[in-house]
Amino acid sequence: MTLELPGIPELCFQRSDDHRRPRWPDPGHPQQAHLDFVVPDLAAAHERVLTLGAVVLDDNNGDPSRGFWVYADPAGHPFCLCC
């Protein structure tokens, strides 16, 4: 599958029949990809990704001062929201 949106680089994805869910940060079950998303409002983006099925892996105890929070998508792939 290819994701093409104006103004951003093309992203391509492949299905893996033997996919093993990553266990961040366990190197025995590594991530296959990691995306960072810069958002204007970390708290609002946090609520949005949770409604879409993301799971919090590390939100710095709700403190945005670090500048990023880590999540897993429904398939277990880690990603970050960054401000």
Description:
- The protein has 83 residues and is α+β, with helices and mostly antiparallel strands.
- The chain has one domain: 2,3-Dihydroxybiphenyl 1,2-Dioxygenase, domain 1, CATH 3.10.180.
- It is built from one helix and six strands; from the N terminus they run βββαβββ.
- The strands form two sheets. A four-stranded mixed β-sheet has the order 3-6-5-4, with helices on one face. A two-stranded antiparallel ribbon has the order 1-2.
- The N and C termini lie far apart (28 Å).
Sequence-ordered SSE layout with sheet pairings:
Elements: E1 2-3, E2 11-12, E3 35-38, H1 42-51, E4 55-58, E5 68-72, E6 78-82
Parallel strand pairs: 3-6
Antiparallel strand pairs: 1-2, 4-5, 5-6
Rough outline = globular
Beta-strand share of residues: 25-35%
Mean pLDDT: 85
- Remind me, CATH topology? 2,3-Dihydroxybiphenyl 1,2-Dioxygenase, domain 1
Name the structural class: alpha+beta
* Largest β sheet strand count, sense and barrel closure: 4 strands, mixed
**For the largest beta sheet, what order do the strands appear in spatially?**
3-6-5-4
Question: What is the CATH domain class?
Answer: Alpha Beta
How many DSSP helices? 1
Task: State the share of residues found in helices, binned by percent.
Answer: 10-25%
What's the Cα radius of gyration? 14 Å
Give the distance, in angstroms, between the N- and C-terminal Cα atoms.
28 Å
Descriptive tags:
83 residues, 4-stranded mixed β-sheet, single chain, 1 helix, alpha+beta, 2,3-Dihydroxybiphenyl 1,2-Dioxygenase, domain 1, globular
